[in-house]
Amino acid sequence: MEAKTKDLWVLIETNEAGSARNVGLELLTPGRDLANKQGGRLVAVVIGCRTEPAVREASAHGADQVIVVDGPEYAHYTTDAYVNALTALVEKHGPTSMLIGATNNGRDLGPRLACRLKTGLTADCTGLDIDPESGNVAWTRPAFGGNLMATILCPDHRPQIGTVRPGVFKKGMSGAEQAEVIHEEIHTPEEKIRTRVVELIKEMGDENVDLESAEIIVSGGRGVGGPEGFAPIRELAEVLGATVGASRAAVDSGWISHAHQVGQTGKTVAPRVYIACGISGAIQHLAGMSGSDVIVAVNKDPAAPIFDAADYGVVGDLFEVLPVLTAELKKVRG
């Protein structure tokens, strides 16, 4: 289809309470830059049930316009309902490009929507810009196992769609709510929805792992030596109020669940502080945590690549360093 506007859309995912998930608000930051370069508006698209909180948040985080589809059939994500609603919106309003978070839902929704609209999709992007020659969105994503970065253009079909990893961009400061709000009545009949949510399970095992929203992360890698090696990492994380992360090597070895994995095949994170313990610093791991404000590395190999990315480095055995650090923090915190 042809674009009817130069607008850039950002899909705002919502939770059960109708509030916006972080990833959508994060994408409004690069969305503003792209929309300005395209000469169009930044439009937030909110689909859900009782979505007033998400609408306010999207407006306060810089959207020029918020398009809302609200109904009981959108209370929980289903492929059929959300694709139906988004397809109808795109066909009516005709944006030139769209950003979707590369969450579980976004990775399901993006390909189906692109196929329905007969356009392209660039998945798992970590960089966004406008190509100065063509004016198309330049989607950058890791390729060949993260060993190089590929930039992809979609010159022939609209809208240009890409999924972007959570944590790659930082959420902007909240301000006054100034967006124009448009409510669209789009309903999806129950018989058209082929799946239903039976139960929501928020916790995995005895832990609630939310790496993408964590402000402090303490991660362990191959250097922890085994599942028991995560004990000092968990102790330090508890004192700091941090979330426990892990490298792919530790996850593949079965020492910790995949929910904790940071990196190319795990979660992309951008905490205020990232403490890497016994992690060598392979490019696939760095791709997932290089957006952290402060990186602290603990590794007994002084030549480990992680030190090139670290703001602070400690050359030493994590089993000697972490207990001392934890003990000192306990003294400070009383």
Tally of helical segments: 9
**Rg measurement, Å:** 21 Å
Count of domain modules: 2
Helix-strand pattern: EHEHEHEHEEEEEEEHEHEHEHEH
Uncertain spans, ≥5 residues at pLDDT below 50? none
Proportion in helices: 25-40%
The major β-sheet equals: 7 strands, parallel
The CATH C-level class name of the largest domain: Alpha Beta
Examine the coordinates and then state which fold CATH places here, giving the name of the CATH topology of the largest domain. Answer: Rossmann fold
Shape-level CATH architecture of the largest domain: 3-Layer(aba) Sandwich
CATH homologous superfamily assignment of the largest domain: HUPs
Q: Please tally the β strands and state the result.
A: 15
Strand content: 15-25%
> Main sheet: which strands, in order across?
5-9-4-1-2-3-10
